[in-house]
Amino acid sequence: MSYRNIFLFSCFYLLSITSCFAESILQNSLPKKKLKILIDSPSLSFSHIQFQGKLADVLVEAGHEVHILMLNIDPKMANYTGSSKAYKVMRVERPPQNHDVMSSVQDIDSPFRGVQRNFQMWSQFIELMSGFCEDLVFDKELMASLKAEKYDVGISEFYGHCPFAIFHHVGIKTKIASYAIQLTSMAGYQFGIPTLSSYVPNIIAPTIDGANMNFMQRALNLFTDTYETFYLRNKSPSTIQPIVNKAFGPDFPSVKEINKNISLLFTNANEFFEFPHPVSNKVIYIGGIVQSKAKPIQSEVKAVLDKSNKGVVLFSFGSITDTTKMSVAMKQAFLKAFAHFPQYDFIWKFKLGINDSSLLAPNVHLFNWLDQKAVMEHLNLKAFITHCAVPLFGDQLFNAALVKHKAIGEYVDIRQAEEPQVIIDALDQVLNNPIYRQNARILQKKLQMSPFKPAEKLVKWVEFASEFSELNELNLPMDELNFFAYYCLDVIFAGIAVLIIVLWTLTVALRRLLPVLYHYSGIFIRDQSINFRKFSAKYNRYVRGGLEQ
């Protein structure tokens, strides 16, 4: 290369760097676009509303305008939005006959019978989603007002296909999914994430051993994945598609295709606290985003925490579970187990039923309501009994399996919770085995030292996605391949066919060549035998002649 060319190349390179640097400065100096964001947040449960509300608050703090669309499903959540900063909250009331519809889901209505009916529960939940969808899409006034707002971004929990169909109808180009729980295989399927039955437990019926499944557990997991693949995954779009076609017209696009174009999925999980599984670049982990400063502890609760001898154990089944439906035998089992640890105090979030006061042990303190976060931050708290330890329904068994997988807690089957010794053994392990505290501290440190904070990831990814509406280059091509191509079965079968043809050809060739070779080898051996006999006779005559001389 000549000096002239080197000089020209250097000048061009320097100008390129200068141009990029100037463009970067210009872009950074430009005012950030204020996005108008719609968040769909049906009142299913406290934790889900809290998660969606926190997304709204974080985005408002970043300078964006956020509206919340809330379908009132649970009357107990009628006054709760989860957000203190949203610009507008649009509540949609359900018909009176549909109030408290969640109680029709058997596991929620009767939570203490065990989690073995999860198959039925998930199917019932999908059916409920179609009813919720009808409450929204046929409200023409609501649809018109949403369309008039001209939203830039729509965010909805990934319950199914209806919210994203609504986003499409009202002209929202950037559609984002959120998930207040761990990423499930049903949600992952929408993004082409494969389901591996060998080591990824299905949330519908997970084994308590999690990823370390034996033969029978893997067989059950494979059955569950098959049930989900051929039934549940198709149930949601097959029920929602006729509804949106009736509401928005017969030419409305496929809800499956709309979901395929979702830009991102924000999941309330953390990479360090989940089972190993394949994942897509569309999945963004923002676990811990709902964390906030704890409120002051109630004086009565604080007194128990401060005065306890060896520490306090918190016992709560959350906001959905009606603890008055717990059997007397189960209450007695827990109380007998608590009495086995007299040096510890037990704070129990519990609604008193008839004659419950007669069951109380002296070291058990009942409260109708607790600020769990405030209690958990107290230094004298030693353990927490919750549905991660005693799972009741939904994703709780999955979470319990995850806790056991990470060795930070013990598991008690709700069907064995009427046996005090089972509870005593689990409590003894958690309170006296140091391995649980060590593992919890290691996990805590990993979460605290994570380089990117959940709120930062949420804001930056939402702003990024809003610029491009669809991020289809991040899609995994699962739906674009048929079953044989996806698993390379066509290649495998072709390879087997070629191998069979080669072996068959060799077999036929050898069967034809062997007789010929045998024939010619026989002639050769016979000729050699004749020559050998002639040589032997001549040699013998020569030897005898020499001897005679």
Question: Can you describe this structure?
Answer:
The chain is globular. Helix 4 runs parallel beside helix 8 (215-248). The model is unreliable at 3-30 (pLDDT under 50). A seven-stranded parallel beta sheet has the order 3-2-1-4-5-6-7, sandwiched between helices. The protein has a four-stranded parallel beta sheet with strand order 10-9-8-11, with helices on both faces. The protein contains 18 helices and eleven strands. The protein has helices spanning 3-29, 46-61, 106-109, 118-137, 140-149, 162-169, 185-189, 215-248, 255-260, 299-307, 328-339, 372-376, 396-405, 420-432, 434-448, 454-468, 483-486, 489-548; strands at residues 36-40, 65-72, 88-93, 153-157, 174-179, 264-267, 283-285, 311-315, 344-349, 364-367, 381-385. With 549 residues, the protein is of the alpha/beta class. The protein folds into four domains: 1-30; 36-291 and 453-480, Rossmann fold, CATH 3.40.50; 299-448, Rossmann fold (3-Layer(aba) Sandwich); 484-540.
